[in-house]
Design goal:
2 domains; 120 residues; 4 helices
Length: 120
């Protein structure tokens, strides 16, 4: 038995099966709401707090002697990566400079580090 699909095509699926698939598809793929951009002052405040927290945790690890070579390496790599991303954005910038976008790589790494080190 063939039924008309929403696009006007004929479907070879039974009506109940087509509805069941449509139901499962909508459950599996929830609609996402677009996120608003974080205002620059909030971004800078979060960056400042996360940086202080990360510096505090890493300093504590160094004092205790538990800071691994991988953590030292991570410190350098993440700064290089954030610098490169900001420089790429700055090079592609035409017209007005978006400071929030320029600070986003730094904010992302600082908040991720603070969260990761908090769990240790």
């Amino acid at each position: 038995m063939s039924t008309a699909a929403p696009s006007g095509r004929k479907s070879s699926l039974a009506p109940g099966l087509a509805q069941e698939r449509a139901l499962h598809h909508s459950v599996a793929m929830p609609k996402t709401t677009p996120r608003l951009a974080t205002p620059l002052p909030v971004l800078m405040m979060e960056l400042t707090w996360a940086s202080w927290e990360t510096i505090g945790w890493r300093t504590w690890m160094m004092v205790q002697g538990t800071c691994s070579p991988a953590e030292y390496s991570r410190m350098v790599r993440e700064k290089m990566d954030a610098s490169r991303r900001s420089a790429d954005l700055l090079a592609r910038c035409q017209g007005e400079l978006d400071w929030a976008a320029l600070m986003a790589p730094w904010h992302l790494r600082a908040t991720a580090n603070a969260k990761r080190l908090r769990r240790n």
